[in-house]
Specification:
It is a single chain. By secondary structure, the chain is an alpha/beta fold. The chain has twelve helices and twelve strands. Helix 2 links the parallel strand 3 and strand 4. The protein has an eight-stranded mixed sheet, sandwiched between helices. A two-stranded antiparallel sheet has the order 7-8. The radius of gyration is 21 Å and the shape is globular. The N and C termini lie far apart (55 Å). The chain has one domain: Alpha/Beta hydrolase fold, catalytic domain (Rossmann fold, 3-Layer(aba) Sandwich), CATH 3.40.50. The longest helix has 19 residues.
Length: 401
Amino acid sequence: MRVRTRVPGVLVALGLLALPTAGARTSQKDEIRARYVKYEYQIPMRDGVRLFTSLYVPKDAGAKRRYPILLLRTPYGVAPYGRGEYRADLGPSEAAQREGFIFAYQDVRGRFMSEGQFVDVRPHNPAKGPRDVDESSDAFDTIDWLVKQVHGNSGKVGVWGISYPGFYAAMAAIDAHPALVAVSPQAPIADWFMGDDFHHNGAFFLPHTFNFYAVFGKPRSEPTSEWGPPFDHGTADGYRFFLEPMPSFDRKYLKGEAAFWKEVMAHENYDAFWQARNTRPRLRGIRPAVLTVGGWFDAEDLFGALETYKAIERQNAGIANRLVMGPWTHGGWARGSGESIGAVRFGQATSRFFQEEIELPFFREYLKGKGSRGCRKPTSSRRATTSGARSTRGHPGRRRR
């Protein structure tokens, strides 16, 4: 099956990262095909809804060699779809791809090829009945199915994600499945009113919100592998476009189809709607080790990274809880070398250092038992707070005070 997946440029700013060149993609796909077998499943949740999941399993996985699972849950699509269509990269980094894991990618409930109804930053439900769902239960049910059904897995699972997928990673840590031992929320959404993406301290970011929901917010009639058409502003003058009266954006352009846009317009204060979507007070009873990641130059979800770490630290005494902050824009630690931002050079490849010396050792430590366990606390020293990834150099189990 071959499908065309069109990704609108506006979503690059909300969690989709820059792609390698065509030649590099072909070479990487060949390497992945040589080492991994791709499978596609519809995994049933407790309420009967099935979530589309792509799996990449090392060819030598079996009784004699077992691999842990790294899971990404995303609202942005797990393209390419079709068992014969392979991704050009696997996992959070090339280093993780070389290391070897079972990589799982899932369309969250109601997005792309998954069944059910999508709800933006679906509130956590601490009083779920046997068939009640939220993002924590969907992660739990997915992990339960994976460890029971996927051949050659070790019984240990890690979850990661950047931006909106970072929100899903954080939710997976709540009421976590026993097999989930490591979680990395990276630039996660924590509170869309107080500091992330669409509001900063309650101030509404009109262009950012509209441009996102003009594409992302359009409903689908059935599961699909396709993005909708990109939005045409009809002008190159963005400033003039956004001077239109506020009611015209829905009536004239969105035509009442973007449900969450209408919710944003209806809840202009920090009321119960937004408070229910604040993840911070829900980050309790967490058992997996956590590595939260953010960038000091992230104009979208800097708040989410810092606040997620602080909430977990405050409400979960004694767990392995780590924070990495570096000189990065949104998701910059996952692409490029991280040697510079614009004309400013840092004198080291900060992104590559993070991927190879911090992120991969974190997953190795908890998923493969390589390295001694421990939880490095951030220090208050100037070096630790200003030098980004360099501040975490050293043995991952050593505690610095």
